[in-house]
Amino acid sequence: MSVQPPHYFPAPRRAKFCSQCGTPISRRVPDGDNRERDICDHCGAIHYQNPRVVVGTVPVWENRILLCRRAIEPRYDTWTLPAGFMELGETTAQGAARETLEESGARVELGELFTVIDVPQVDQVHIYYLARALGPELDPGPESLDARYYDESEIPWDDLSFRTVVTTLRHYLEDRRRGVYQAHRYSLEHH
Ligand SMILES: [Zn+2]
Predict the structure, then answer these.
(1) Which of 44, 58, 78, 153 is deepest in the core (most CB within 10 A)?
(2) What's residue 4's pLDDT?
(3) 29 alpha carbon to ligand 1 midpoint, in Å?
(4) What does the alpha-carbon distance between residue 70 and residue 42 come to, in Å, rounded to a whole number?
């Protein structure tokens, strides 16, 4: 018999118990390593933690840019480019197209890699691809309250979800003005 919890949430990165044997985890530097790890002193498993990859797109239809209004925390009810955590077994490009379809219903033809943004304070890397929508149809999924295409002049700059979205949009609009799209790699180290 299973008991339903009051609500589900993503587990914290640091586990309390070894996933191999259930023993409480210790945190220290293993022999031959140079940083603290979550270690099981019972079975010997080392529980490595590494950054996570967020993948998304800058979908464009007739010069307008697709934004989705978030129906989930964090940043509920703010506007974002379609993006989400890369899943196991997929490529960054597949993940970006999947997230775009899931969050907006937009079918896109993926373009070039556009931004690669290190966000070390949350242990993430965000990767955005350029994308051309294959039609104007949208069908926002359960993670979005709404989805629509914005003219440059209508972009809700004060209501965007994340700095990675703000900076990716700024780069996109700058490159569009210049008529040359290039990949941008940078870090957002401070809030
Ligand atoms: Zn163990």
Answers:
(1) 58
(2) 86
(3) 16
(4) 43
Q: Cα–Cα distance between 32 and 36 in angstroms, integer?
A: 11
Q: Per residue in 106-162, pLDDT tens? A: 999 999 999 999 999 999 999 999 999 999 999 999 999 999 999 999 999 999 999
CA of 40 to the centre of ligand 1 (A): 5
How far is ligand 1, taken at its centre, from the CA of residue 45, in Å? 5
Burial of 70 (0-12, 13-18, 19+ CB in 10 A): buried
Give the residue among 20, 43, 40 at the shortest CA–CA distance from 30.
40
Mean pLDDT of 33-54: 95
Q: Sheet containing 26-28: which strands, arranged edge to edge?
A: 26-28, 37-39, 46-47
In the block, which residue shows the tokens 């569009």? 176
Residues 6+ apart with CB under 8 A from 28: 36, 37, 39
- Which residue shows structure tokens 């589900």? 8
Distance 39 CA to ligand 1 centre (A): 8
pTM over 0.85: yes
The CA 53 to ligand 1 mean position distance, Å, reads: 27
Tell how far the Cα of 46 is from the centroid of ligand 1, in angstroms.
8
- The 10s digit of each residue's pLDDT in 157-191 is 999 999 999 999 999 999 999 999 999 999 998 75
